[in-house]
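dumping this here so i dont lose it
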């Protein structure tokens, strides 16, 4: 009935509810001794003890709130709403959870005798009850047997990142026995950004660096949506009052648009350092891993095509995550691929480790990648 509670202060001191109760009991004992208090029964369960416990609980909760405020004043300790308040005040917002999306094929085992309309919002499911909604109306037309349509997971977060061929059931009632599948795995569902990752972005925000410093230039450039990373060079080629930023973009097809956006951004009063000439240089793409083959030995009871799709995701994420000047190593790729569920062993032909300058970034030929992933049969 009377639980003891506690919290720890930033100094490491432990604050117990029971200690507050004992302090209040001591005050009451002193009051009795001085003739100021006529109540004599403060045993647990008595009415007087119950009132004293409630008083102690109010004091404890107030001290806990004060402690929480003091703790979250320190930037590296901030969590939850305190972190959101600080981030929002400098324009760095927590990344919200997103719903995974992808394409499914809905069909019949025979050609339709009439047009079959499947309406937006119809519910599909995996065998373990992860549900997806049709993103739009679609139709299996007369004399055809399939339609392909986009679906969105009903739940936000990574829970919707399902493997290929796992969406198989139609929950919404139709007068047909549909054959349903998702040819590819879904990978774009994201959980809400956790405090640790959000704090890192807040600390890396331009407002936390002295204007004109290396960190300030890079963090300012990185705040543009399509910039993956940037590298600051002071006085390239010994040019006076000149700095250079090497820009590595996420979407390499819109580099010129991103450079224009950066130019406009750095011309704003807040980001325009007087007397400094800024050169913006796109990182040069260097293709590697174009002929290497990935040989996979599957663990029992795993489907090669499903595992292959996950391997493609791993390789894609590896190269999409390369920073300018960052080395490429097949041993690192081998380690990442080896951690894919369903892989018992993996080898990569022609292992290599290559470095590049800060003006370069490694990429690969993604169009030939599926054909270079093979299954080893023993």
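and the seq i came up w/
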């Amino acid at each position: 009935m009377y639980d003891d509670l506690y919290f720890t202060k930033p100094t490491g001191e432990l604050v117990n509810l029971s200690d507050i109760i004992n302090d209040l009991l001591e005050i009451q004992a002193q009051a009795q001794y001085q003739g100021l208090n006529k109540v004599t029964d403060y045993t647990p369960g008595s009415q007087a003890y119950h009132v004293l416990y409630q008083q102690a609980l109010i004091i404890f909760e107030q001290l806990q709130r004060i402690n929480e405020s003091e703790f979250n004043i320190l930037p590296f300790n901030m969590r939850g709403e305190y972190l959101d308040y600080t981030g929002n005040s400098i324009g760095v917002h927590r990344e919200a959870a997103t719903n995974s999306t992808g394409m499914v094929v809905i069909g019949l085992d025979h050609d339709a005798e009439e047009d079959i309309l499947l309406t937006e919002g119809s519910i599909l499911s995996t065998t373990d009850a992860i549900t997806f909604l049709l993103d739009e109306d679609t139709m299996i037309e007369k004399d055809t047997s399939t339609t392909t349509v986009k679906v969105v997971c009903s739940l936000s977060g990574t829970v919707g990142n399902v493997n290929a061929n796992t969406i198989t059931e139609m929950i919404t009632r139709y007068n047909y026995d549909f054959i349903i599948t998702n040819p590819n795995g879904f990978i774009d569902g994201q959980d809400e950004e956790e405090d640790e990752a959000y704090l890192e972005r807040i600390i890396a925000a331009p407002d936390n660096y002295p204007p004109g410093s290396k960190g300030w230039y890079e963090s300012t450039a990185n705040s543009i949506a399509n910039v993956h990373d940037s590298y600051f060079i002071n006085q390239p080629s010994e040019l006076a009052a000149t700095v250079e930023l090497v820009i590595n973009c996420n979407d390499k097809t819109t580099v010129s648009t991103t450079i224009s956006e950066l130019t406009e951004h750095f011309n704003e009063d807040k980001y325009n350092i007087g007397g400094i000439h800024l050169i913006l240089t796109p990182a040069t793409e260097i293709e590697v891993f174009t002929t290497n083959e990935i040989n996979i030995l599957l663990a029992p009871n795993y489907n090669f095509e499903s595992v292959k799709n996950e391997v493609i995701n791993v390789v894609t994420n590896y190269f999409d995550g390369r920073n300018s000047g960052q080395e490429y190593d097949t041993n690192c790729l081998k380690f990442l691929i080896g951690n894919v569920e369903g892989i018992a062993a993996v080898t990569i032909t022609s292992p290599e480790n290559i470095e590049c300058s800060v003006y370069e970034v490694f990429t690969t030929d993604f169009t030939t990648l599926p054909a270079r992933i093979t299954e080893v049969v023993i």
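The longest helix spans residues 47-73.
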